[in-house]
Amino acid sequence: MLEEVLREFNPWWGSPYEPPGIPRKRYVSEIERLMGLERVILVFGLRRVGKSFILKQLASEMIKEVGPDKVFYAAMDHPMLSGTSILDLLSEFRRINKVDKRSPHFLLLDEVHHRKDFEWELKALADADDGLRVVAAGSSSLVVRHKSAAMTGRYLKVQVYPMDFAEYLGFTGRSYDPSNPAQMAGLMDEYLVCGGMPKYVLTKEPQVLLNIIDDVIFKDIVNEYGIDNGGRLKNLFYLMMDRVGRQLSYEKIGRLIGVSGDTATKYIDHFQEAYLLNLCERSGTPNEGKRGPKKVYCPDNGFRVVMTGTRGSGALAENLVYNILAKGQEIKFTVVDGSEVDFLAKDTAVEVKYRDNLIDEDVKPFISKNIRGIKHKILITPKGADIKGLTVVPLWRFAYEASQDRKGTPK
Predict the structure, then answer these.
(1) Phi, psi of 156 (to 5 degrees)
(2) 278: number of CA atoms within 13 Å, CB side?
(3) Which of 158, 253, 258, 346 matches a 20 to 30 Å C-alpha distance to 29?
(4) Could you report the per-residue pLDDT of 35-47, keeping only the tens digit for each?
(5) What does pTM read for this prediction?
(6) Quick check: is 409 in a domain?
(7) CB neighbour list of residue 121: distance below 8 Å, 6 or more residues apart
(8) What is the CA radius of gyration of the chain?
(9) Do residues 223 and 335 both lie within one domain?
């Protein structure tokens, strides 16, 4: 019976295989690169962000490299696997396909957080001396984040994000056409409201995102920390979504949900750990950054829209720019002469003014500000503009070019 289940998981053992979903080549290529550096790769991120599809697309590429019999995929939440250890599954795979453990072969484990003490089994595989490479994906972000600490130094990690603008265009059958800026601005406005969670992009059914929020709050956070009032936690998340792009007062938020400022701080930290919320610190000394007010952002615009019903493009554009900039670098905001600058990224200041027909008063403060350490200033608008003293970039171009080059801030 076990062998039958494993063969169902691995249809390529018996016939040609066509992987599901729209290809997310960036992640597949990154995992392939890292497998040349380490034996175990951990794939993590929000629930339902597309990790399972990425594993199956990776399987297709590995089949080309070593043949179908040396690639093994298993979903660890299947009831038939509940009594079988990862090590025993590996032995069964090798037995079925007569795999020499010294030869290159691949173990792809999905929903690995369902396996108690998975980190110790992965550690044992990381320490083995054979031809195995392991890629493990977990949807319960808190469990994966905490337990993977036991494997420090024995794995590399890949975080999967909601689809960026380039992926969204491909996923929905459109293409990038900079020669048609009006069309691109329209597609960006569509993406701003929809976001990049794959199933929601396909269905536009709000319950898809609401279910993800409930799962993270009630299955991940509540279970991990033993919180006795999940409803209060959900109310807090609604308040966070309503405040996207604004500075946060823990004391005020705590009063609104009936807890102390310290408890509100703790709850918000849990949201961050679960990849459901991001906080941006103010530039300054380390102490000022930690203790000072922080700005609130969410990992995907769709969550804010379905939670609040608000589609105001200004906050959504700022949230998107934060998510673009924050991948792989530290982002902060600052206040100069009483006026806020949205983001500081390396030696670049970025301001988002997502409205047409800007007037001088909209941009003069940004142009005139002398910000320490800043060599470049970028203004993000819907369609671009010609403003002396500033690099002005339409959001659609900024987002697309950032998706093509993860190594720096688009100029």
Answers:
(1) -115, 160
(2) 24
(3) 346
(4) 999 999 999 889 9
(5) 0.91
(6) no
(7) 85, 86, 87, 115
(8) 23
(9) yes
